[in-house]
Amino acid sequence: MIKAGFKWMFLIIGTMVGAGYASGRELWQFFGHESGLAILLFSIMFGVCCHVILSISHDKQSTHYVPVLRVIVGKHLTSLYDVLILFYLFTTTIIMMAGSGATWQAFRYSYWFGIAALCIPLVLAFVWNLKGILSLNSIILPLLIGGLLFVLILFTWQEELSLLSHIHEQTNWVSAFPFTALNILPLVAVLGAVGSHVKKKGEIWIASMGSAAVLGIISFIYNNSLIHISEEILLYEIPLFAILKQYPYKMFIFISFLLWIALFTTALSSVLGLITRIQEKVQVPLWLLALVIIVIMVPFTSFGFATLIEYLYPLYGLLNLYILSAILLYPIANRYKDDLRY
After folding, report:
1. b/e per residue, 138-169, with b = 16+ CB within 10 A?
2. Which CATH number among 3.40.30.10, 3.30.230.10, 1.10.4160.10, 3.30.720.10 corresponds to the domain 2-333?
3. CA distances from 223 to 166, 218, 229 (A)
4. How far apart are CA 276 and CA 152, in angstroms?
5. TM spans, by residue (predicted)?
6. 176 FRET partner, CA 20 to 30 A, in 17, 67, 110, 325?
7. What CA–CA distances, in Å, run from 265 to 11, 125, 240?
């Protein structure tokens, strides 16, 4: 049960820690100064949401997200959010592809070479079944989390930063709601596709509480580091590179590789949610669906990584506030049901 719980935890973190998050761009977009309480609220809400979504997915034994969506928002709004999720997953994958292009550009490679470097292994990953994709996540996610934490803790120690120096300044707490809402749709999409693979309720507790704790700690340390270099962030499309500029080139290469892994895992999760939904209507192999969809996406990457995040992420954060509210209220509204006891 513990091993399976960690498997789902890594899937959740892989869905969340994408290009926007790992690069620091998404955190800075929503948090920044006076956001310690906001990050705590995000962690709590995120854990509750993961537990609710996985529980519904498990109870429905779902293989795609629509049955889960129907329980959360009702049958009348399901069609609307179905379209929104498909559009979200589509654009998120485009953002990951653009992020790969930006990452390879930092090493003076072509932007389109960077996009191809993500797209080719992405299609190949779907030659495997779902079990293979989950196994891939469980191998590369610990490396990503460990590497990111190492850099952030090292930066905090070398710069002698205090994690509690701004604890009395918490006026930005309300940003927790759009930030959490932003990340709800991919969770519904991805966790809705694995309900039939979850065996025990204990797995759900490990996955939801574990992912919330890990992401909360990383977010707090990362945001504190970004505050320290706030005047330099405007000069970098990827804020993490502003932290890395004083480190040896080998460290820069290592973290850039980890950033690319973050891009890949989130693109993998997004495409998984997208094609499991489409496969219900079109019975073709997963890898072929992935290939067709990715080819369609490539032209849209020309808008650029930072621009896509700047405009799309706040919009999604606002649009998803209703579904966030519905998920958070679900345990209360269904407290008498035997299948979801809190």
Report:
1. bebbeebbebbeebbeebbeeeeeeeeeeeee
2. 1.10.4160.10
3. 12, 8, 10
4. 36
5. 38-56, 77-97, 109-127, 139-157, 177-197, 204-222, 251-274, 286-309, 315-333
6. 67
7. 9, 11, 18
Query: How many Å apart are CA 133 and CA 271, to the nearest integer?
Result: 11
CA distances to 106, 241, 262, 340 from 257, in Å: 12, 12, 9, 41
Q: What is the pLDDT of residues 257-284, one digit of tens each?
A: 877 887 887 788 788 878 877 877 777 8
CA 309 to chain CA centroid, Å, is 13
Q: At what angle do helices 201-228 and 2-16 cross, to 10 degrees?
A: 40
The domain segmentation of the chain, as residue ranges, is 2-333
Give pLDDT tens digits for 9-67.
Answer: 888 887 777 656 877 888 888 887 778 889 999 999 999 999 999 999 988 888 878 88
- φ, ψ at 86 (rounded to 5°): -60, -45
Structure tokens at 10: 């890594």
